[in-house]
Amino acid sequence: DPFAGDPPRHPGLRVNSQKPFNAEPPAELLAERFLTPNELFFTQNHLPVPAVEPSSYRLRVDGPGGGTLSLSLAELRSRFPKHEVTATLQCAGNRRSEMSRVRPVKGLPWDIGAISTARWGGARLRDVLLHAGFPEELQGEWHVCFEGLDADPGGAPYGASIPYGRALSPAADVLLAYEMNGTELPRDHGFPVRVVVPGVVGARSVKWLRRVAVSPDESPSHWQQNDYKGFSPCVDWDTVDYRTAPAIQELPVQSAVTQPRPGAAVPPGELTVKGYAWSGGGREVVRVDVSLDGGRTWKVARLMGDKAPPGRAWAWALWELTVPVEAGTELEIVCKAVDSSYNVQPDSVAPIWNLRGVLSTAWHRVRVSVQD
Ligand SMILES: Nc1nc2c(c(=O)[nH]1)N[C@H]1C(S)=C(S)[C@@H](COP(=O)(O)O)O[C@H]1N2
Ligand SMILES: [Mo]
Predict the structure, then answer these.
(1) What is the rounded distance in angstroms from the CA atom of residue 165 to the CA atom of residue 138?
(2) What is the C-alpha separation between 12 and 135, in angstroms, rounded?
(3) What percent of the chain has pLDDT over 70?
(4) Average pLDDT, integer, range 296-316
(5) What is the per-residue pLDDT for 305?
(6) Which of 150, 223, 176 lies closest to 72 in space, CA to CA?
(7) Res. 60: pLDDT tops 90
(8) Ligand nearest 219 Cα, by number?
């Protein structure tokens, strides 16, 4: 069993697949803390978790002149200043289960929890690339490609890439992280070193990082080329051509209600609705609108959390709204967020349906009844 060496996990997680391990925190707990505790942070593994001996770990960085830089964990920690960033990671498949209710899609049935937030600590990718001899800027199209230590049975590693400009930009805060919420990275989250690309789809934040290379082409990995792309609702598995769509990088604006849960019976009196909202590319969430009547009338939720520097809102906003509710009524709670570019979420799922069930960002709807 290639998964026999996987680490133990928290029993409270909602498991979408055991081998490879894919799990999300229960929705009620998701927005209880601004920083998701490590053992509840959602996990998406495509392959078995590699066992890494920290003392023999080396990160290989292919330099510009054909040479390679090899860094031990101790060197990564000591040669580069430690930089800390609070960032939310979201899988492109978050909320996929709502999309499959419109029409079946291929992929794990994530509920609203394929998203979590941590304080990451590590070396800036920028500092490591500059140290390896790369320049601040390169003319033309270049990509920074990452490979993980996890590989499929044919030996192909997990891989992904990001544009060179993002990797080098001091304002983009891309990390080679070795700490998560003040402790070493847990095995499920990439021990000993992972990439963290704030504001970008989780798939590019490569875990168990073994190699960094700069290339005129995007990563040749299956997950860069033939997955994690969006298509029109008219495209099906007979007609899809993955070469025609760009790889997902920055994600669109997203929000969801974490409390109450669908189908709940809530007591009359004061009801507190809670949730999260986040947008990609460092775009701050500027407002969350909440409706209790399916979207006919709206109220503005209270946003919680610290204000981020402009264009660097990497972490989610948690929000709350307390409203009076009457016994015997049925509520259809809806939330929708607005980001700093005034991007909004689409009102329904069908027009954004896609065969892989990614980018599921329609208004989140939760039906509850008010009962004594
Ligand atoms: N090496 C490696 N990195 C990986 C993955 C993987 O399977 N292998 N999964 C990716 C995907 S699709 C996501 S959404 C994030 C999830 O990170 P997490 O498990 O720490 O939440 O890791 C990304 N990095
Ligand atoms: Mo993902």
Answers:
(1) 8
(2) 46
(3) 100
(4) 95
(5) 84
(6) 176
(7) yes
(8) 1
Are 306 and 282 in contact by the 8 Å Cβ rule? The answer is no
Among all bound ligands, the one having the nearest atom to the CA of 356 is 2
Q: Above 90 in pLDDT, residue 306?
A: no
CB neighbours (10 Å) of residue 51? 12
Q: Is the torsion defined by CA of 240, 357, 315, 335 positive or negative?
A: positive
Q: Which of 16, 36, 43, 46 to mutate to test the pocket of ligand 1 (most atoms within 8 A of CB)?
A: 46
202 Cα nearest atom in ligand 1: 14
Report the nearest-CA residue for atom 2 of ligand 1: 207
- Kindly report, residue by residue over 217-231, the tens digit of the pLDDT: 999 999 999 999 999
For residue 285, what pLDDT is reported?
98
Instruction: Please report, for residues 29, 113, 300, 334, the alpha-carbon distance to residue 321 in angstroms, rounded to integers and kept in the order given.
Output: 17, 20, 8, 12
Q: Return the percent helix, strand and coil in the chain, to nearest 5.
A: 15, 35, 50
